């Protein structure tokens, strides 16, 4: 009888370790019902130099200010395409700004009069006219895992 309890005790300990191990490897947030993933592909890049900065916004008042993004990613360029996957983000409206930091200086380079020297684009193919588009023009609703393609100007 003692052997049976000893085996059961070891199983309980091993199960406990397995649960702790699983929680470390797979955080609870990944399985949250109110969160999804977003894949972004940037196409039309003129070179493979530098990287593409992908900035994600969720508030109209902060768009497209550099201090207002909720997160950003630097995506490498392969065959004139950059791709990045954002995991575990809330289901709601977002807008994306991308620019190709071709010279890798961590700035969106512009001439006098704020004329861009580097390629850029907004989600929803939102157009620029004497300034950036509005959040509403660039926004999309993320309610399920989604893939967004953005072509740079």
Give a structural overview.
The chain is α+β, with helices and mostly antiparallel strands. The chain folds into 2 domains: 1-31; 32-151, Immunoglobulin-like. It contains 2 helices and 9 strands, in the order H-E-E-E-E-E-E-E-H-E-E. The strands form 2 sheets. Strands 2, 3, 6, 7 and 8 form a 5-stranded antiparallel sheet that branches. Strand 4 and strand 5 (81-90) form a beta hairpin. The longest helix has 24 residues, at 2-25. Residues 1-30 have low confidence and may be disordered.
Topology:
Elements: H1 2-25, E1 35-43, E2 51-57, E3 71-75, E4 77-78, E5 81-90, E6 92-101, E7 120-122, H2 135-138, E8 140-142, E9 146-151
Parallel strand pairs: 1-9
Antiparallel strand pairs: 1-5, 2-3, 2-6, 4-5, 6-7, 6-8
- Contiguous runs where pLDDT drops below 50 for at least 5 residues: 1-30
CATH topology name of the largest domain, in short, is Immunoglobulin-like
Overall average pLDDT: 81
How many helices does DSSP assign? Answer: 2
The sequence of SSEs as H and E is HEEEEEEEHEE
What Rg do the Cα atoms give?
22 Å
List keywords for this structure.
alpha+beta; four-stranded mixed sheet; Immunoglobulin-like; 2 helices; disordered N terminus
Short description:
The chain is α+β, with helices and mostly antiparallel strands. It has helices spanning about 1-25, 135-140; strands spanning about 35-45, 50-55, 70-75, 75-80, 80-90, 90-100, 120, 140, 145-150.
């Amino acid at each position: 009888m003692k052997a049976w309890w000893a085996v059961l005790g070891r199983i309980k300990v091993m199960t406990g370790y397995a649960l702790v191990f699983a929680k470390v490897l797979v955080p609870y947030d990944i399985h949250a019902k109110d969160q999804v993933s977003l894949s972004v592909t940037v196409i039309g890049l003129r070179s493979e130099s530098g990287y593409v900065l992908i900035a994600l916004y969720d508030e109209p008042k902060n768009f497209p200010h550099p201090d207002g993004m909720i997160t950003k990613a630097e995506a490498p360029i392969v065959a004139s395409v950059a791709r990045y996957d954002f995991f575990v983000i809330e289901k709601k409206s977002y807008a994306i700004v991308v620019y190709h930091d071709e010279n890798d200086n961590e700035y969106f380079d512009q001439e006098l009069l704020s004329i861009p020297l580097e390629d850029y684009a907004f989600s929803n193919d939102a157009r620029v006219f004497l300034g950036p588009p509005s959040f509403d023009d660039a926004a999309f609703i993320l309610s399920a895992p989604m893939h967004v393609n953005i072509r740079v100007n």
